[in-house]
Amino acid sequence: MGLSLKLTRNILNTYLYWKPQVLHDLHESVAYLYDNTIATAHTTPGSIRF
Amino acid sequence: MPPVFEGANMHLKRISKLLFASFLFIAFAAISINAQNSYTRDPNQQVDQDYTKKIAEYTTEKFFNSPLTDYLPASSNIPTPKAVLGDVAGAPNKLPYAEDVYKYMRMLEKASPRVKVFSIGTTEEGREQIAVAIASESLLAKMEENRARLTKLADPRLINMNDVEADRLVEQSFPIYYITGTIHSPETGAPTGLDGELAYRLVVDDSPYINSIRDNMVTLITPVVEVDGRDRMVDVYNWHLANPGKELAATALLGPLRRARQQSRCRWVYR
Fold it and tell me: Residue B32 domain-assigned?
């Protein structure tokens, strides 16, 4: 995990300070359909793009 | 097994135990809701009729909502998100800046002993980040002592790898559920609607399942992680509202982009 930004370090410090059992990020994506292209580049033949 | 690995193994078991207890609690809450024929709110608690009417009006399809969120409990002394937004959370054409979201969270803190707002630092551009703790008053009062216990469980060398002590700490501790929103600036929903309204519901609602959450764990919320990008996103959104049909000139972004690059090589203005 990159920690070059202060805002990232602030979140990590909060996590390490309070020791939560669950860290739940309310991530958002395109409604209805989501294709995670991590580790399969967009240019990979056969990969799906939306 | 070498003692050091054995100790680490026991430590993992204890952490797993606490984690399992957290999930068990959430599962229990879910089962309780189901057992109550989906959901029953506290019949003795008034409903905020105006707010509830707006929720129905702004929800484009009924299946987007649920019995848990299709009404808002009323309170005589706790302000709803309307106090800051001027409309209900998630209303069309309303995108609040981070400072507006913080203003609302601090209004909640002032109005209720069930809320504590912690300032957790500032961003590259000097904007504040916060974490909002919500729970029963008695649980909030024990947050620091609970933290001391969780610290010992996280590093069992502090208790000399004593299993009996670890079990005792687990018994005494309560879980912390940390929610973060807008880790990427275009993720506009969390601070706009969910976090403020969720905080209000956790503070005000007297339904059995909310009481159970409030009395047994602390919900910690950072409504906006990427505060700098969020505010820039709101600038762009408001510009488009004021200039319908026009394209925003790319040069308008160059100033902030240049400044951001000077401050951090790794930073993306729009991530």
Answer: yes
